[in-house]
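Last lecture ended with a question: if I hand you only a sequence, what can you say about the shape of the protein? Today we answer it with a concrete record. The protein is U3 small nucleolar RNA-associated protein 25 homolog. Below, first the input exactly as provided, then the predicted structure, then a couple of comments.
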Amino acid sequence: MNGEDSDSDVSVEKETTGESTKVQESTVLPADPEGKGGDGPVSTSQESLEEFTDAKHESLFSLETNFLEEDSGGTCSLKVSQDPFLQHVNKELKEKEIQAVATNPKTTHQLKWPVLGQLVFSSKFQKLETFKPSKDVDLKSLHLQKPLESTWTKTNSQFLSGPPKSSGPFTPLQKELFLIMNSYRDLFYPERTALKNGEEIRHVYCLHVINHVLKANAQVLGNNSRRRSQKLGVGDDDDFRDQGLTRPKVLIVVPFREAALRVVQLFISLLESDSKKKIIVSNKKRFKGEYGSDPEERPPNLKRPEDYEAVFIGNIDDHFRIGVAVLQRSVRLYAPFYSSDILIASPLGLRTIIGAEGEKKRDFDFLSSIELLIIDQADIYLMQNWEHVLHLMNHMNLLPLDSHGVDFSRVRMWSLNNWSKYYRQTLLFGALQDAQINSVFSKYCVNLQGQVAVRNVPMTGSISHVLVQLPHVFQRMEAENLASVIDARFNFFVNKILPQYRDAVMSHTLIYVPSYFDFVRLRNYFKKEELNFTHICEYTQKSGISRARHFFLQGEKQFLLLTERFHFYKRYTIKGIRNLIFYELPTYPHFYSEVCNMLKATSRGEEATWTCIVLYSKYDAQRLAAVVGVERAAQMLQSKKNVHLFITGER
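The predicted structure:
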C-alpha cells in the first residue's frame, strides 16, 4: 500500500498479502463461521493473490500537480468565513488550552431535540456551546460544495415521500444529524438499525464526507493556482497551510463488503450532477466484482428474522480495505493509501495492515491526518472482534514515522504540533447503548468542538415481546468491582444455580452465554465435573451443530451451552428447551425475547414446568434496562431483594 511508484508497490503487496491471508484464515470464523461470504470473481488468479492498487491514474489524481478548474466554482463557498469547514480547520488552539484539557473536568449540558430526543453535549475545552435545530433548513445556508446542492435532493429522494416537508431535502432525522455533523462535533448515535434507518443515516454521512473532501481538495487546488500565479517554489511562503501530514482525510469503518459497495455507490451518485454527464470512475468493474454479490448464492429456503436478513445482505466478507481518491468530477477506486482522500475498511482489514508491535511489516502513518472518522454499525464489531476497534483507535492521529513526500510549508500548524486528534471529528453509529462502545466515545473523542451523544432510555423492555407463558426469575449477584464480575458470576452460577439443575428432572436446559471466554470456562468446568452436556459455538462444524441439536431435543444430553455469537450469525431455532438460563444478559435486547420464544417450537403440554433464570449485577444496568425497561431496572438494582419474578404470556 505504501509505494507511489509501481515497482515498490508490488514488493510491498507481496509481503502484506502473505500476512493478511494468514490472519484471514484464523479470523474469518467469528464473523462468518462457514467462510461463505468470500470475494466475488476476480479476473486472474495471479491478481487475486496480490492486493490490487491502481497505479495508472497517479498524476491525474495528484493534489500537488493539479489546479482548480475555472468553471468548477469550488472557491465560491470557501470564500465565506461562515463556512463551518473553514471555521473548524482554521481555528487555532493555544498551547495552554491543550495542556488544560488533561486537567479540565468535562462540562456537560442536556438538551431535548424533536427527533433525536435526549442529547448530551459535552466538552473538555473551556466553553461548551449548545444549539437547537432550526425549523427550516435552507440548502444554501449549509455551505454545501458544488455539485452537492443539486445532487443531494435527487440521491436522497427515496426517503422523501409525499409533499416536501419543512425539513426540505432532508428527512427529520437526517436534518438533525446533519446539523450536528456540519458543526464538526463528535456524534454518538446508538439507535441505527439495519431495518429502520440504516440507509437514511448512510446517505447523510456520505453527504458530509463528500462535502468535507471536496472543500479540503478545493482549498489545496485553489492554493496551487495562486502559488503558480505568484510563481512560488516549494517552501517559499507560509500562507498556504491547507493540508495534513498525509493525504487520507476520511476513514469509514464498515463491517462487510456490501456496506463499502453502498458507500461508494452513494459517492458516485453525489458527484454526478446530471445523468448526461457521467463522472469518470476508474476500476469500477473490478470493484463491482470484488464487492458485489451474486443473488443466486443465498440459500432460498432459510427463514430468518427480518433484522438478520437486513444485516447479512449481499457480500458479507469482513476482510477488506480500499482507498478512494476524489478530484473534482472523477473518482479513483483502489488508489494507493497515501494517494487516497477516503479509506473504507473493516476492522480486520485495518488490523492486518496496522500490525502489532515487533512485526517487521506494519504501517499506520496513513491514519496520521484523518480529519473525519466514521464508525458505522459499531454493534457488529462486538460480535466480530472488538479488540480490532480498540487497536485502531490507539493508532489514530499519531505522528507519521516517514515524511511520505509532504511539502511541510503546506502542512497546517496544528498537524505539525501533533494536535490532529483535537481536530478529528468522530461519528459513531450503532444499534445499542453498550458500555464498550460508550467507553470508546468518551475515551478517544476529544474534538475541540465538543461531543454530542444521543441518550434515550428504553421505557419498555424486550421482555414485552416474549409470547410464551414463562416465569422469568432475575437473580442479582454481588460483585465488589467491575474487574471481579467475571469470577463472581462464575462462582455464583456454579454454587447457587447449577446445583438446582443437576437433577435429571431438569433436563432440556439451555444455557445462553454472551462471552466466548465465559463459554470456554463453563465448557471446561462441565467436562471436569462430567456433566451430561453438549455445546455449540460460532466455531462448531455443521455436523457438530446437527448432532448437538439432535441430542438436546431427544433429551440424551441434559445441558446445551450456546454462545451469543452463534445465535447472531446463524439464528437457528433450538428445539426442545424446557429450562433457560441466561448466564449474562444478551448484548442485543431482542435476543432475549427471541431465545425465550424458542420454547414454543416444541411444546408438548409441559408448559407449566418451563423455567427461565437470568443472572445480573449492578454493572449490567444498561442491558437490564433494555430487557425490562428503565423504571423496573432501577427498582431491581436498588431493591434489598436479590430475586425478582416476571411472568409473561398470561392470557
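Comments.
1. The chain is about 40% helix and 15% strand.
2. The chain has a mean pLDDT of 85.
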